[in-house]
Amino acid sequence: MEDKIVSEFFEESSALLSQCSEELPSLLCRIAEETISCFEKGGKLLVFGNGGSASQAQHFASELVNKLAVYRKPLPAIALTTDSSILTSIGNDSDFSDIFSRQVEALGQKGDVAWGISTSGNSENVIKAVNTAKKTGLLTICFTGQVGNKLSNIADISLNVPSENTARIQEVHLCSGHALCELVEAHFLSKNS
Fold it and tell me: I need a surface site. Which of 56, 71, 122, 169 has the fewest CB within 10 A?
């Protein structure tokens, strides 16, 4: 019984990943080009999300600052999910919906990239941060689930996973984030060789 459940889990995941492998490559290449351009002009990447998306934001920032596979020039990526003092002070003194937008307002500059991750695409604090980023002149990217959510309607570039299952969406986000980091890393490695 449990074996069947586990097999179905892998089958669903691989089917969605396979579908996305046909639909997302050109979009991921575009996101990589924009991210590379940002870094080459001296800008930085601000990445954020809630729950599992928060952990992915931290994961992707670490891949860019340190490395995905090969040591190279560190790249300026900041996960806005990591400073508990900032998060709790904003949540306490203002509102939880402001925890990312206040940081974007403090750290974001024209030419930077803001990358919001939300499986539902309707996380109020992510939406607010993307709106703040747009007003500040940042390019905005989002990773979400199904098309038609609030976040994908406001971001400059939106990667939408055609699923309503949170775990499946996160799996595609992880694979897509790794592909993005690999493209960026390959570019900067080729420049230094």
Answer: 71
